[in-house]
Amino acid sequence: MLLPVTLLLGCWGFAHFLFNHPFCLTICSVIVLMNADILNKGCVESGRDAVIAKFEKRFNCNPDFVSIAPGRVNLIGGHVDYNRGLVLPMAVDRHTFIAGAKGEEAGILTVHSIRENESFVVDLACPMSPAQPNWTNYVRGVVHGFLSRGIELPGLNMLIDSTIPSGSGLSSSASLEVATAGILEAASGVMLKGNEKPKLCQQAEHEFANVPCGIMDQFSVTFAKREHMLLLDCRDESIEQVAFDHEHLALAVINSQVRHELSQSEYAMRRESCESISTTLGLESLRELTWNRLEQSRGQLDELSFLRAEHVVRENERTLEFVHYMKNADWFQAGEMLYQSHASLREKFQVSCAELDELVDAARQVGLTGGVLGARMTGAGFGGCVIMLVEREKASDVVSKIVEDYNRSGATLSRPRASGFVAESAEGAQVIKCAVG
Ligand code: GLA
How many CB atoms lie within 10 A of CB 435? Predict the structure, then answer.
């Protein structure tokens, strides 16, 4: 009873606000500018309308554009993108929304984040460098990428809103970068071609946020297609859109809400150690490593390096096997690949943590009879989310059961409470031109 009443009051409040607000009524239609596919219904539309209203309130004018970029989960292919491997992300219905309009002051960029409740101002004529607070670096880095390519940017006001939980392995940073790039493309009239946009965003993350990430997140946020997983070959950067059977399957996302301190430093260490293994073996990357070559390298690699390399070789194979099983509707085997991937990330690559392992174990216990086909951690690890491949009709029961059990069993432990949702696939980034009429 409480929920419908709250919704009713919420809608009435919003309608009242619209009617009384001087600017809202002028924005009555929107035109999709780039990536002109159908918008995901529901959350995208309400998020877009909300960011428009918040922009108007803050800057006292209508936005010219709204840039929208999704978050993502990675179904399989953990920690192989920076080894030029094979990954299978899917964009999900959690988004970054940025409303933007040309500002009155030429050469000045004013950015406000709703989530952080902070603003910053950049003089586009001055050299750009990383600065505090840290969230601003994702925007600064992308602006720098445009300027360093000689793209002229007008003075601009931007307002950022997001429905992607941050630090949870759902790529809130890549989403912010790609959404920023979308606004800058729209404002400058210069569209980045081919892979240049995700590459520019990855470079921003390397140089401004100091995270040596691979290319998976920025590519999936840019190129995802609704109802598809994106099979990305990180060696030649080719993409295959693989259908996800939405009629029968769903993805449950359980957020442990845990983020262990060492996640960033350990990530960089894993990347470094993979690069040093390839150097030792005289390979360009671990993608070139075969089982034979790995067998022969026993004397050359220490035990830990051997395990890391083993994970990468097998994980690349698993990605292809998972795709094969999904294409053949062999969901049981597909699910097994997820469990195996998690075990390898836990034991060989060592990027999991107790909370993620507990959630994956819980998924196994619910098992096939409860509708769970497989589960694994997603993202960089050391906290964040676990994804579960589930039968669609049992998906919300699975989320409630796993979350309730986990929170009950952790009631006496000082750990955050988990939350979960059934993720729907989403379209890649898009920019909408706001029409005044
Ligand atoms: C983070 C990085 C990605 C990828 C994953 C692990 O999400 O940003 O590039 O390396 O971790 O698969």
Answer: 13
383, 263 contact by CB (below 8 A):
yes
Q: Do domains 2-243+429-434 and 249-423 have the same CATH topology?
A: no
Coil vs helix vs strand at 109: strand
Q: What is the pLDDT of residue 411?
A: 83
Show me where the domains of the chain are located.
Answer: 2-243+429-434, 249-423
Cα–Cα distance, 389 to 72 (Å, whole number):
15
Q: What is the CATH number assigned to the segment(s) 249-423? A: 3.30.70.890
- Catalytic residue positions, numbered: 217
- Helix-strand-coil split of the chain, %, nearest 5: 45, 25, 30
The pLDDT of residue 31 is 54
Q: Are 340 and 348 in contact (CB under 8 A)?
A: no
Q: How far apart are CA 430 and CA 372, in angstroms?
A: 33
What CA–CA distance (Å, rounded) separates 22 from 60?
A: 9
Work out the angle between the directed axes of helices 196-208 and 136-148 (0-180°, nearest 10).
Answer: 120
Give the pLDDT confidence score for residue 412 in this predicted structure. 85
CA of 20 to the centre of ligand 1 (A): 45
Report how far residue 355's alpha carbon sits from residue 13's, in angstroms, rounded to the nearest whole number.
Answer: 40
For residue 77, give the ligand 1 atom closest to its CA. 12
Cα atoms in the 13 Å half-sphere on the side-chain side of 403: 21
Q: Is the pTM of this model over 0.85?
A: yes
Average pLDDT by stretches of 10, the chain with 437 residues: 43 40 38 44 84 97 97 98 98 98 94 98 95 96 98 97 94 98 98 97 97 97 98 98 97 95 87 98 98 96 98 98 98 98 98 97 98 97 97 98 96 91 97 82
Count the residues in the chain: 437
Yes or no: say if 350 and 267 are a contact pair by the CB < 8 Å rule.
Answer: no
Domain boundaries 2-243+429-434, CATH class: alpha beta
What pLDDT is attached to residue 35? Answer: 41
pLDDT of residue 83: 98
* CA-nearest residue, atom 1 of ligand 1: 380
Tell me which of 73, 74, 172, 351 to substitute to probe ligand 1's pocket, judged by most ligand atoms within 8 Å of the beta carbon: 74
393-398 long-range contacts (CB < 8 A, ≥24 apart) are 394/370, 395/250, 395/252, 395/371, 395/422, 396/422, 397/370, 397/371, 398/252, 398/363, 398/366, 398/370, 398/371, 398/372
Residue found under tokens 């359980």:
254
